[in-house]
Design a protein that fits this description.
It is a single chain. By secondary structure, the chain is of the alpha+beta class. It has a single domain, classed as Alpha-Beta Plaits (2-Layer Sandwich), CATH 3.30.70. The chain contains 5 helices and 5 strands. It holds the Pfam family BLUF.
């Protein structure tokens, strides 16, 4: 099965209380698992970046629901494409709180308007996006990749571009 990946950024329409956010995250994890969608949700205050990975139809349907959800505003697609394989565990939604400056920097690097100037020509865009995401996770929230009993060799590896 081919992996389809959508990366988007958004802002919460209103502040979430801790209990409300925990409930939302649990519901998202249950739904994503049932649809075979994995990925990563990063939050810095009211700013979000999410990576959704899985079957194209399921990922596209979930993203359409997210984009229409009134709890989000300023939802913008950063990337949507077939990927060589999942970066994160299939059917598992990783989550991490990160610093706002770090998240803003990641979003700027991934932004389609900037990445053509930043990425060398002739390189595989999807591999570079994957490398940027993995490097960010390794630096800012490595616990997202670590699993009990996990071997380092079973984790996603960066490409030859890294």
């Amino acid at each position: 099965m081919e992996t389809y990946r959508i990366i988007y950024a958004s802002t919460a329409a209103r502040p979430f209380g801790l209990a409300e956010f925990d409930r939302l995250l649990l519901q998202a994890r249950i739904y994503n698992y049932s649809e075979g969608i994995g990925g990563l949700l990063l939050r810095a205050g009211s700013q979000f970046l999410e990576v959704l990975e899985g079957p194209e139809a399921a990922v596209a349907e979930l993203y359409a629901r997210i984009a229409a959800d009134p709890r989000h505003q300023a939802v913008r697609t950063i990337d949507a494409a077939a990927a060589g394989g999942p970066l994160f565990l299939p059917a598992r939604l990783g989550f991490a709180e990160v610093e706002l400056t770090a998240l803003d920097r990641l979003i700027a690097y991934l932004d389609p308007a900037h990445r053509r100037a930043l990425f060398p020509q002739g390189y595989d865009e999807q591999e570079i996006i994957a490398d940027l995401l993995l490097e960010f996770v390794e630096l800012h929230c490595p616990q997202v990749l670590a699993q009990p009993g996990d071997q380092a060799t079973s984790r996603p590896q960066r490409s030859q571009y890294a």
